[in-house]
UniProtKB/TrEMBL annotation:
PANTHER family: POTASSIUM CHANNEL SUBFAMILY K MEMBER 18, POTASSIUM CHANNEL, SUBFAMILY K
Xref: SUPFAM superfamilies: Voltage-gated potassium channels (SSF81324)
Protein family membership: Belongs to the two pore domain potassium channel (TC 1.A.1.8) family.
Annotated keywords: Ion channel, Ion transport, Membrane, Potassium, Transmembrane, Transmembrane helix, Transport
Protein's name in the database: KCNKI protein
Domain Potassium channel stretches: 98-159, 294-364
Key word Transmembrane helix present: yes
InterPro entries per UniProt: 2pore_dom_K_chnl (IPR003280), K_chnl_dom (IPR013099)
Organism: Erythrocercus mccallii
Pfam family, one: Ion_trans_2
Keyword Transmembrane: yes
Subcellular location: Membrane
Length: 391
């Protein structure tokens, strides 16, 4: 008989890992490619625009020249009035007059702008000026924001799985520690001995059919261990399911002899992975206090690192900037001198937005539960009491 060579286990494991990671890598890679294409587009459109000297700019220069002459001629009698005039003049100035488009709309500057668009942060210090750039910005956001939300949902499943497993393991460890403290050594040893003796005496004789179980009821009553009806019913159902299931065709399990079947099986697994997006996030149930603590630690780490290259920020200002960024508020009151350095923190921004999103979702679930309790309490309070009439 001809034997088919099976692939080694190492290659099979690598393939399983690859197809399990493929959906997540596909979303992240799509977002990265989308950001790079947007950076090239906006740097070409906004960076190569012509700067036209407007009439407002000429008027601004004339007024500035007049105030400079007054200062040089020492004509100013009141310094406060002169400061007010300077302040009022610069309030009318347009920031675009003093910025070179090629410097502002470089590749890294455009990439930073694209990240602020599809993450819905929108600081406001960088925005398109040309009409074509504005139209393309709307179109870019129309496709980029759903892609960003898809990446957030996908990464939310990973973070939800990690958080739930970590929290469950912590609860198990905490329960074991409490059990070891409450239970004395002699009592626990005696209890373990009794459990081991009881388990050694238990013998489960599973019959093949329900009729044989019913016939052996009298014999089961004489045994020292008595089963509950629910446990007995579950054993019967499990036994009957094993007997009624059709026998597997062993030839079909040898996927190496039929590559077409193996390919269809792999494709179906990948499609199921896409269909499971967002399911783990819906099942997440951890305390909201824990999520607030995670957010505080996460922002504090970035706030401690960011002032190293942003010299105009201290820890408090950097903490405020990171919070405004991760919550997608983006006032724009705090500006970055070196946005391309912070751009390397794009992964930090995406993960941080996901953590904040999880915290908001948990808070939303808690609010829904609270509203339900309040409405139920008000409904029960306003219900008319039943009057009992004497017979």
């Amino acid at each position: 008989m001809a034997t088919t060579s099976q692939p080694p286990r190492g290659k099979t494991t690598c393939k399983k890992i690859f197809w399990a990671v493929f959906p997540h890598a596909c979303f992240i890679l799509s977002l990265v490619i989308y950001a790079f294409l947007g950076a090239l587009m906006f740097s070409h459109i906004e960076g190569s625009r012509e700067v036209n000297v407007s009439e407002d700019y000429r008027t601004f220069l004339q007024n500035l020249t007049y105030l400079a002459r007054k200062l040089s001629d020492n004509v100013t009698e009141n310094d406060e009035m002169f400061k007010d005039d300077i302040r009022e003049l610069f309030n009318t100035a347009d920031p675009l007059w003093f910025i070179n488009p090629e410097d502002k709309w470089s590749f890294f500057g455009s990439l930073f702008f694209c990240c602020t668009v599809f993450t819905t942060v929108g600081y406001g210090n960088t925005y398109p000026v040309t009409r074509v750039g504005k139209y393309l910005c709307m179109l870019y956001a129309l496709f980029g924001i759903p892609l960003m939300f898809l990446v957030l949902t996908d990464m939310g499943d990973i973070l939800a799985t990690v958080l739930s497993k970590s929290y469950n393991e912590f609860r198990k460890l905490q329960s074991k520690i409490l059990a070891s403290k409450l239970c004395s050594g002699s009592t626990c040893s005696k209890r373990n001995e009794l459990k081991s003796r009881a388990q050694s005496k238990i013998v489960i004789n599973e019959p093949l059919t329900i009729m044989e179980v019913l016939r052996s009821q009298s014999g089961m009553k004489q045994r020292p261990v008595k089963y509950r009806n629910v446990e007995l019913f579950e054993m019967l159902i499990a036994r009957e399911n094993e007997n009624t299931q059709p026998a597997r065709n062993k030839s079909m399990e040898r996927w190496s002899s039929c590559p077409e079947l193996a390919r269809e099986k792999t494709v179906s697994r990948v499609i199921k992975n896409f269909d499971k997006i967002g399911k783990e996030l819906e099942k997440l149930d951890v305390p909201i206090v824990l999520m607030v603590l995670v957010i505080f630690v996460y922002i504090s780490c970035a706030a401690a690192i960011l002032p190293n290259w942003e010299k105009n920020m201290d820890f408090q200002e950097a903490f405020y900037f990171c919070f405004i960024t991760l919550t997608t508020i983006g006032f724009g009151d705090t500006k970055l001198e070196h946005p391309k350095f912070f751009l390397f923190f794009s992964l930090y921004i995406i993960i941080g937005m996901e953590i904040v999103f999880i915290a908001f979702k948990l808070g939303q679930d808690r609010l829904i539960v609270l509203y339900k309790k309040v409405i139920s309490f008000c409904a029960e309070k306003n219900m008319p009491s039943k009057k009992i009439y004497p017979k």
